[in-house]
Amino acid sequence: MEQEKISMTDILAGRLAELRRGLLKVNLPVLAARCGAELEQGANVLRLSFFDQQVAVSFTDLVFVDAKKGTALTDITQALLLYYLTTADGTPLEGRWLSFADLPDGRFYNQAFQGYSGAELVKYFGNDPAAFERAGYYLNGMKIAYGDSAFAFHILPRLMLSVIYHLGDEDFPASCQILFDASASHYLPTDACAILGSMLTQKLLAA
Q1: Share above pLDDT 90 across residues of the chain, in percent, rounded to a whole number
Q2: Does residue 46 sit in the same domain as residue 112?
Q3: Which among 81, 99, 125, 179 is least buried, having the fewest CB atoms inside 10 angstroms?
Q4: Residue 150 in contact with residue 164, Cβ under 8 Å?
Q5: How many separate domains does the chain show?
Q6: pTM value?
Q7: Tens digits of per-residue pLDDT, 25-40?
Q8: Rounded to the nearest 5 degrees, what angle is found at the Cα of 25, between the Cα atoms of 23 and 31?
C-alpha cells in the first residue's frame, strides 16, 4: 500500500511538471483571454476565481496560491487548474447541460462518477429539498429551473456545473445528477471534469 501511495504521488508530481513545462511556452495575454483570467501587467501573474476563492499563479514557478493568504493549493487542485489553463481555448459557455456520460469518453466512467457524486448527494439529502437548497445557496449557487430543485455553479471563469435534484415518490427514489456546460471539454479533459464533480459533491455535503 505504501509503495502504491508513493507511486501515485510520483505520477502526479511528474504530470504537474509536464503541465508546467507546456505552459511556459504560451503567450500570457492570449492565455488570459482564453481562460477568463486577469493578467497583472508587468508581473506575469494570472488571477482567477475557483469555487469563489481568488487564486493566483506566477509564471516564474507556475504554482497556484490562495491570492489572499499566499499559501500553495493542494497538488490535486494544482493539477486541476493547470489542466484548465492548458486546455482552455476561449469557447463561450453554451448554456446547455450535458451529463458526464456525454463528455468525451465519459460513458465508460459514468457509473463510477455517478456513484461518488449524485448517489452520495442522494444518500445524504434523501427527500429533503430544503436541506439541498440551503447547501446550494451556501455555495453561491444560482437557482435554475430543472427537476424539483437545481443550482448552477460558476466554478471557474469559463466553466459551469449544475446539480439537478429530483424528489422521490412511491415508484421512484430521489435522484441527483451533476451536469456540465456543453463547452466543458474545451476547458478540462474528462477525467479532470470527474475530479471537479467530486469536489463540488464534497463541498455540497460539507455545506
Answers
A1: 78
A2: no
A3: 99
A4: yes
A5: 2
A6: 0.90
A7: 889 999 999 999 999 8
A8: 60
CB 148 within 8 A of CB 175: no
pLDDT in tens, 182-194: 999 999 999 999 9
Q: Does some domain include residue 138?
A: yes
* Last residue of one domain, picked from the residues 87, 107, 135: 87
Whether the CB-CB separation of 184 and 87 falls below 8 Å is answered with: no
Residues 114 and 55 occupy one common structural domain? no
Q: Is the distance from CB of 75 to CB of 21 less than 8 angstroms? A: no
Q: Which residue has the higher pLDDT, 169 or 185?
A: 185
Grid cell listed for 167:
424528489
| Same-domain check for residues 131 and 83 | no
- Mean per-residue pLDDT for 80-96? 96
Q: How many Cβ atoms sit within 10 Å of the Cβ of residue 206? A: 9
Query: Looking at the predicted structure, is the pLDDT value of residue 49 above 70?
Result: yes
- For residue 9, tell me if it sits in a domain: yes
